[in-house]
Amino acid sequence: MKKVIIIGGGIAGLSAGCYAQMNGFDSEIYEMNNISGGLCTAWKRKDYLFDGCLHWLVGTSPANPFYRLWEELGALKGKKFFSYEYFNKIIDEDGRLFTAYVNPYRLREEMLEYSKEDKKLINKIADNMRCLMKIKMPLDFNLLSFFKLLPLIFIFRKYSMGATEFSSLFKNNILRKFIKHTFDWHDMSVAFILWTMALMADGDGQYVLGGALEFARTIESRYKELGGKIFFNKKVKEIIVKNDSAAGILLNDDTEVTGDFVISCADGYTTIFEWLKGNYLNNKIRKYYNELEPFPPLVYVSLGLNSDYSKAPCRLTLLLKKEIDVGGKKINKLECVNKSFDNILAKEGKGILHFIASADYSFWKNLYNNKDKYYETKNKIAEDMITAISEIYPEIRKHIEVIDIATPVTFERYTGNWKGSYEGWLLNKETMSLRLPITLPGLKNFYMAGHWLSPGGGLPSAALTARNAIRVLCHHNKIKFSTTTI
Q1: 3-40+56-78+210-292+423-476 carries CATH number 3.40.605.10
Q2: What is the pLDDT at residue 148?
Q3: In the 8-state DSSP scheme, what is residue 336?
Q4: What pLDDT, on the 0 to 100 scale, is given for residue 404?
């Protein structure tokens, strides 16, 4: 059995390990933290488990081909799901409410309530969403699947714009505002949000009860059942290369781990420019890291509440009367994710709210050198957010038991992700059809998987790039790629 060394125990690393084991390789995963999951994680604070990743998941419906991917990895074994009726609720400065229903018919009626003059555009959006509901993204691409995806490609090109440009198509000022904030999801393309809503309307894109950490642990269990080995608290210093061939890894304690192949499922920049010293790249790859835009890092404020908030909106955007400074960047809306319906994260009768805001990486990186100022700034942001949400939940202060604040530095420190980005490259007009290579030029027996290979990121991309990496590894070794369905 040839030995595969896998760097990173996140979803990509665990998935690569599973598929390596399924195809007769002897694999070992080396993870820098004391648990698996990487960005797919949660952290315990008193009676609360704060989930930093899982909001919805593509492939929870058996009708979606990605369901098979999760079946192969054992990820959904014994899981229960929460279905979304709406993608978001938005309350503007004047107290008006807009509900972005995932059902195209209900969304159409909600938009028409605010603007009959935009009826033609509204009908077209609803028609396009119904079309998206019928399209199934295949796991394995071929010529036939390409032709089947032509309607998806057409719609994605049509809506490849950002939220501001999209909202400008509407005539009614109030609806224009609601549309902008419905689709303004951390600078992503409108097409991706429309597709996500269509998935949810079709019974997919559900939330997996138990959240991110339990999801990752389920795949870890599958990996161990297949005979894989995972080592924790093992940080990589360098990828060992001999005669332009990956031969293992050097850990921070100077321990050498040798193998026949190396797969990096860790941060792309660190892998290419630090562990491999920039020796194996071409102008195209260099250009990606110089010019492409990563997902903006986050300030992530979590509240543990000694009260039942399970009936409150699961997703809410509050347009602010007064801007909040989140450290070098001001926001005019408060994005609130409510996980109180998940009794695995919070005990019955208790609640969890998360406030999510894009942040300035450089500001937080520099501020971290002054710890007193760093914590003072964090606490000020949390206080401002609590003050803002108090307009909707006046009683919230007396219910707060725990406040937890993660910054871009937290994400970087915990995962090593470049610039604190939580999902790799941003999905927009420039990156929509872009796929980065699994191998690097001039380097043999080396492969990559994870968010930095597939713009838009997400758990399905992490798992699928790992599946593809092992497929390519099998091809190079004249092995027929296979999967094992539970």
Answers
A1: no
A2: 75
A3: E
A4: 98
Rounded-to-integer distance, Cα 104 and Cα 128, Å: 9
Could you tell me how far CA 215 lies from the centroid of its own chain?
13
Which structure tokens are listed for 163?
């939220």
The span from the CA of 32 to the CA of 234, in Å, is: 5
Burial class of 164 by CB neighbour count within 10 A (0 to 12, 13 to 18, 19+): middle
Cα separation, 353 vs 303, in Å, equals 5
Residues sharing a CB contact under 8 Å with residue 232, sequence separation 6 or more, in sequence order: 9, 31, 33, 34, 35, 36
Tokens of residue 398, six digits: 């007396």
Identify the CA nearest to 269 among candidates 285, 251, 249, 284: 285
Structure tokens at 194: 């429309």
Q: Three-state SS for 53?
A: coil
**Ranges of residues in the chain whose predicted pLDDT is under 50:** 486
**DSSP symbol at 292:** P
- Given this model, what pLDDT does residue 16 score? 98
What integer pLDDT is reported at residue 61 of this predicted model?
96
Place of tokens 């990096």: 264
Contacts (Cβ under 8 Å, ≥6 apart) of 397:
386, 390
pTM: 0.95
- Closest to 435 measured CA to CA, from 455, 421, 417, 451: 455
Distance CA 362, CA 364 (A): 6
Are β-strands 351-358 and 207-208 bridged in parallel, bridged antiparallel, or unpaired?
A: unpaired
Model pLDDT, residue 486: 43
Instruction: Label each residue of 319-338 as H, E or C.
Output: EEEEEEECCCCEEEEEEEEE
pLDDT at 128: 96
Q: For 26-81, how does the pLDDT look when each residue is reduced to its tens digit (9 = 90+)?
A: 999 999 999 999 999 999 999 999 998 999 999 999 999 999 999 999 999 999 99
Point out which residues pair with 324 in neighbouring strands.
331
- The neighbouring-strand residues paired with 351 are 305
